[in-house]
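Data card: per-record layout.
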Amino acid sequence: MKVLIVILSLSCGFLFSNLSQAQEFISENQQVIMDVIQTAYVEGLQNEGNLEKVDSGFHPGFELLGIGKGDQMWKLPIYNWKETTADAVEEGKKPRKEEELVRVNFLSVDVSGTAASVKLEFYVAEKLTYIDYLSLYKFEDSWKIVSKIFYRFPEKEEK
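The structure for this 159-residue chain is written out next.
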């Protein structure tokens, strides 16, 4: 009986040790993913218009997917989004002014091996504007954002 208790205790200790290591691994990946999003998406694409930062975190095959009028789905590849961002820099619209800065609040970062899904709140200044759903893959060199869908909060009508 004592031998059985010792074996069970050792087994439980081993399992909890491995679980702890797995949680650390996931936590490290979650932080890396959040850093990629902060650098490439928030700073690079949204606030600064820094295309080097954009390239550091977006896969060249990235597509933004949306729904327009009549439930028509549309796609915006990253190269088109980068062109729009470069135009905004050229027109002096980026980098954004302090009162127009974008910030995000991470709601969830779900990692399964080399795939990840992130849900975040997207604020322009203090206004919650979107809920974004980003998908990422881990490639040999780093995590890359590969797609995005979103929900846009309706504009409040002035009374």
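Known properties of this structure: The chain has a mean pLDDT of 89. Residues 18 and 74 are 44 Å apart (CA to CA).

See the next section for split statistics.
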